[in-house]
Every structure is written in structure tokens, then in C-alpha cells.
Amino acid sequence: MKAVVERKYQGNKLWPYLFSLPFVIGYIVFHFYPVIYSLFLSLHDWNGIGEKTFVGLQNYTDLLTKDPLFYKSLFNTTLIMLISIPVTIILGMVMAHVTFHLAAGKRLFQTINFLPYITTPVAIGFIFSYMFDWQSGILNQLLIQLNLVTEGVYWLQEPFIARCVIALMFIWRHLGYFMAIYLAGMTAIPQDIYEAAKVDGSSGTHTLFTITLPLLKNISVFLIVTSVIGGFQLFDEPKLLYGGWAANSVGGPDNAALTVIWKFIDDTFISDNRFGYGAAIAYSLFVIIIFFSMISYRITAGKGEKE
């Protein structure tokens, strides 16, 4: 009898592993193996067809010493993030605060602001391309109608403005998501705290800066770190803004819109078919993302932990 109970117990312990086995196999085959293989590939010269030639760290050396476009793409990506992330954080927090105190129409306001986040990048690319087109763009037409300019402005042909437009695309797309996360955090704050502050005579602005924002600090850290990670993977917006998937132009005016992921895709699959070099770009970006994520975390969360 005891042996039967032990076998039944052992069988019950096996079921969780059997149920998780499909996910584990899928993760190993489609995620873990490609990551390890990419590291192996970054140490070789390979065009995807012929034999692989072992070159050691040569791909990394060429990338860091002989490829100025890599640093240009890194600069573009960082600048776009520095423009877009602080604005998105601040606007998301303000909109969440306004939504939280709305008496009516709260759900409609949330839905309208969240729609851009679930809009496909292709549609976003077409929208902004049409808005900033120098001939038929809505912005130029509006400026001409108001007699502010006499002819269309080449918005997408100015390097800095091009980066600002991409940052604006990022803000427009992610603002609703930031607002929803902050709104969830505000909803989770106990109302007793607000009532106690109100009894003590605290104004709405004073309550916001002394109670709400400090209690939302962990959410802000989460949004900043995940935004940095996602910002370094920026690709859809600049690619679709400058001609869509079928266009042969890369990087926009003076390569001002070239991001690290766009360069990775172009060098690996389009222009050069250098799979080993592309893997080196991917792993270099991986190290950069870890570095900047740690810096972002230390800046936003480190001070509070020390205190």
C-alpha cells in the first residue's frame, strides 16, 4: 500500500514538468539556441550561403574602429530617446492625473489615448509621412493657409527635424500606454492617504508632488528602464517614415534617421549580407542596452535606495 502511494505521489510530481515541457522546448529551440548561435556566428565571417570562416573578434574590431555609421546610428538612437522619453514620462503622468480626477467620460478618454499604442506601425508611418510631406502634407497646408510660410517646408530633409519627428512618433504611440500604467498606479494608492492630506489642508498640487509622485516612483523607474530598452530597438518608425519597407534609401537625410537596429538589418539582410558582422552588431547592442539600463536604474532608483 505504501509503495502504491509513493508511486502515485511521484506521478503527481511529474505532471507540472510535463505540462511545462512544450514551453521549455519552444524556448530552447526558438530563443535560447538562436542567442547562443548568434554569439558563435559573430566570431565568423559568413554570407549566409558559403562556408563560415572563423575570424575571432575581427567583426567587433571592425565595428568599433572602422564603421563610423555604427556610432552615427548609436548617436541618433540616443538623441531620439533623450527627446522622447522624458516628454512621454511627464505627459503620461499629467494625463493620468487628469484622467484620475475626471468626473465623467473617464473610460472614453482612456480608450482614445490608448488607441495609438495598438495601432500598427505601418499605419503610423503612413500618417506621419502624410502629415510632414513637403507637397501635400497637412502641416505645410495649414501653415500656408495661415500665411506663416509661402511654400512647403522640407521637414523630413532636415537632420535634426527628422529626429524630432521620429521622437514625436514615439511619443504619440506610447503616450497612452504610459498614461494607463500611471493611472493603474494612482488607482492602487490607498484613498485614506489622500483623505488625510485633505484634512491637513494639503492642496491638490502639494498632494501631487508630496504624495502621488513619490508613491509612483517604482512605476517611473519601470517605465524609464523599459523605455530605454525599447528605444535602442527602435526601427519601425524611422524605416516606415522614409519610404516604407520597399524603399532602397537607408537612414534618411545625412543618415539622421539611421538607428542601430536599422543598420543591423541593412548590413545583415539587405546591403552586405554579412551575417557574422550583423551578429556582432546585435551583441554590441545587447551590451549597450545593459549598460544604459543599469545607468537609468541607478539614476532613477539608486538615490532612494541609499536613503
From TrEMBL:
Residues 74-296 form the ABC transmembrane type-1 domain. It comes from the Bacteria. Keywords: Cell membrane, Membrane, Transmembrane, Transmembrane helix, Transport. InterPro entries: ABC_transporter_permease, MetI-like, MetI-like_sf. It holds the Pfam family BPD_transp_1. Its main location: membrane. The keyword Ion transport does not apply. It is a multi-pass membrane protein. Belongs to the binding-protein-dependent transport system permease family. This is Sugar ABC transporter permease.
